[in-house]
Amino acid sequence: MKKYIVEFIGMFLFVLTVGMVVIDPGIGNLAPIAIGSVLMVLVYAGGHVSGGHYNPAVTLAVWLRGRCKTADVIPYWVAQIAGAFAASYVVLYLKGNPTVTPAEIKVVPSLIAEFIGTFALCYVVLNVATAKATAGNSNYGLAIGFTVVVMAFALGGISGGAFNPAIATGITVMHIEKTSNLWIYLAGDLAGGALAALTFKFINPEDK
């Protein structure tokens, strides 16, 4: 249960940050830095308890890689999505229930962007936080957080830069993205996470 609580808290703070810095009055072009930074500190804060996933796609990747128990996958996802929902409603309340105009995105480019961004994030997570050769390093949180910063700057203009099904849920609840586009994030992000796991296992067959 402690693991699930940590995932809930982390996801709550993650989505809270996203909403507060993106919805007007937000911080404009600096938003990716704040979002990547909060993920970094949350990974450091909760990584020793839950692994610091805060992302259903990461949980999928870590499970496929063999470092997450099957029995934990669904509870992790439930905790992550619940945290996203809770934070979204808090953001809307704090912002005064604003009128938010959802972004317009194109399906195929957004699918590709989400797939690449999530692949990059999960690939980095698996290599810095689960590989034997990098065990015990103290830089994993920084690497993970900065991957989000870089991918958000690089691809956020195309898809919104969720790279995380729980974040996608949150930005949908907050009306930053359209409900009809939620499937794009779920499909692209989970596929990116799955490929990252398969790629890691192919490159590191001895790392069981």
Overview of the molecule:
The protein contains 8 helices and no strands. With 208 residues, it is an all-alpha fold. It has one domain: Glycerol uptake facilitator protein.
Quick take:
The chain is mainly alpha-helical.
Question: Notable features of this structure?
Answer:
mainly alpha; 8 helices; 0% strand; 208 residues; Glycerol uptake facilitator protein; 72% helix
Spell out the blueprint of helices and strands.
Elements: H1 2-22, H2 31-50, H3 56-65, H4 70-94, H5 107-129, H6 140-159, H7 165-173, H8 182-203
Shape: globular
Quickly name the level 1 CATH class.
Mainly Alpha
State the major sheet: none
Mean pLDDT over all positions: 95
What's the number of helices?
Answer: 8
> What structural class do helix, strand and pairing data support?
mainly alpha
